[in-house]
Amino acid sequence: MLLPALFAAGTLAVSCTGERDMPEPPSTDLQANITIEDLIDRYRGVDYAAIDTALYIEGVVTANDVAGTIYKKIFVQDSTAGIDIEIEMTNNNHKYPVGQRLVIALDGLAFGRYGGQPQIGGQGGVETVRLYEPECDEHFFRKGYASSALVPDPVVLSLKDANSRKMTYCGMLIRLDSVYFVDSGQVFVDVSADLPGNAQNRNLADYRGKSQNTLAVRISQYATFALDTLPGGCGSVVGILGVYNEDPQLFLRDRNDLIGFRKAILPKETADSVQAAGF
What we know:
Elements: H1 2-21, H2 36-42, E1 48-50, E2 56-63, E3 73-77, E4 82-86, E5 101-105, E6 110-114, E7 117-123, E8 128-129, H3 133-139, E9 140-143, E10 155-157, H4 159-164, H5 166-169, E11 173-181, E12 199-206, E13 214-220, E14 235-244, E15 247-251, E16 258-259, H6 268-276
Parallel strand pairs: 4-7, 10-11, 13-15
Antiparallel strand pairs: 1-6, 2-3, 2-5, 3-4, 5-9, 6-7, 7-8, 11-12, 11-14, 12-13, 14-15, 14-16
């Protein structure tokens, strides 16, 4: 007669132990006192500035190195803007997954621009340097667990807007609809070629022939899909809009950022516009 009671007690002990072992989600009382947009505006026209005031930004990780396309950096975005955070960590996706909310204490860090792209890093005297993991632990504070529900919806842009408003949306997650790869049928990255920066640009063009604008998609030779074939037809592309020496470029986060591409024959007006553009 004692066995059921003992079994129940044992079950209760296991359940309680299990509850005690559940880790509390990370939290912090720190709050942002400046938006990312205001931070960038604060240093408008400045290529490097050490930050020595108690400034805090808060945002969600929108991109990391999960597919090898983004190297030793993450992108963080709030409701106003996005920014590149330089960190000396490989496999940073494990510590800073997409959807992780972060508060970043900027005092002791630096604001800079690389090729015109705003970024945050360590104080290097004349340019930002990458932050090592212990420095990240001192300045980055996680709020809760990562969740895809926290990732902001990409801003839908045309190729024309991506080119003309590149600095407005630089560092942000964007989406381009009804576009196609000019080099479809080739591999994403020709690893046998001499690749400056170990990456290759593949151009997107407007499938509907409404614009002669193109946009370079910057793809690392270390991307997990580097040897895959660029899809044909039209589709949508999601990624982080960047800039390098005035030229806009798009960073794919992984292969899933390519949506709905299909084999298709270009309509005549699009083929004509592509030919006129010299492709």
